[in-house]
Amino acid sequence: MKTLKDIDISGKNIIIRCDYNVPMEGNVIKDNSKIVKSLPTLNYLLDNGCKIVILSHLGRVKSEEDKEKNTLKYVAKELANLLGKEIKFVDKCIGERLKEYVNSCNNKDIILLENTRFMDFPEKLESKNNLELAKYWASLGDIFVNDAFGSLHRAHASTAGICKFIPHCIGFLVEEELKHLNILIENTPHPFCVFMGGAKVDDKLPIIKSLLERCDYLLTGGGIANSFLKAKGADVGSSIATNDENILNELKNLMIKYKGKIILPLDFTIDDGVIYDIGSKSLDLYKKYIVNSEIIFVNGTCGKFEDERFTEGTIGLFKILAISNKIIIVGGGDTASAVKKFGFVNSFSFISSGGGATLEYIADKKLAALEWMDL
After folding, report:
1. Can you tell me whether residue 15 is helix, strand or coil?
2. pLDDT tens digits for range 261-310
3. What letter does residue 51 receive in the DSSP assignment?
4. pLDDT number for residue 199
5. Cα–Cα distance between 19 and 56 in angstroms, integer?
6. Which residue from 215, 131, 146, 201 is spatially nearest to 177, judged by alpha carbons?
7. Cβ neighbours of 112 (radius 10 Å)
8. CA dihedral for 60, 66, 69, 71, sign (positive or negative)
9. Which CATH architecture has domain 185-364?
10. Phi, psi of 38 (to 5 degrees)
């Protein structure tokens, strides 16, 4: 597929899909990392005299009330602050008047359209990749730049369908993501160690199975570890763990098939009978595998890191990783948030901006939206 520097963009009207699906509390952006990561591509477009129209989603829109709480107008303010430049926010993402407004803007103007998922109510036009909607968005510019890595695992109108109607390429963020994640797919250094945490093993089972075929060690934490322990016959009480008997049987079979590769915690922080974190003995055990590895992929945390009482395991793991001098690649979502919260942003080789997209790319070696782009 073409990259940004493979296309002549000088003075062109650019439609760019960014991933501004940032965590919000009311009107406050709690983590602006995704916005910051879009800046290199935007600045390159500005340096080349482009008019820029930005598409992004925020949250899920299933009602009129969802539209009120998922507006991108606060993202526009944050982007303006970061760029030091006016962002022309438009409170709609479709219509003839919108097209007339975009056409009236000048080169080096940046126009941020309202949440693309506003088109999901009452009909799911965006999420179901409605090609008429995609054709409309394509009509707003000359070239489409897809720089929304965190959204590439879904073939939506603004990430996939639009490619059918306009010349296109990937932006710097997507290019950087693919470059770093490819090391986990092909020619991966060994020993290759994976830490997999988080709440729901049901969602992560496909990636776990895919990684077990390739990695040398799988260290576990959170609900993932609890589910493996439960499958092994341990009493985890009311701790987060799967109740699906089929999945428990799969986990049991995986522990037989990959005996010695799946590493479970030895001790825990428990409150009122519930496991909330792993303990120091587990960290000492995990350290032995980490220092013996060449590359470590980290997805998920050791426990309920949002609660200050249960941060010891996650912080301890990050400290071990930070001083290991190994290649450390961190999956996005909650993992990236924890890395930022505890001050380890500059301690690891690469922190992905994707959550589900990161996992799907590593597991399947492809992403749905990229399949729509010219290869």
Report:
1. strand
2. 999 999 999 999 999 999 999 999 999 999 999 999 999 999 999 999 99
3. E
4. 82
5. 6
6. 146
7. 23
8. positive
9. 3-Layer(aba) Sandwich (3.40)
10. -85, -10
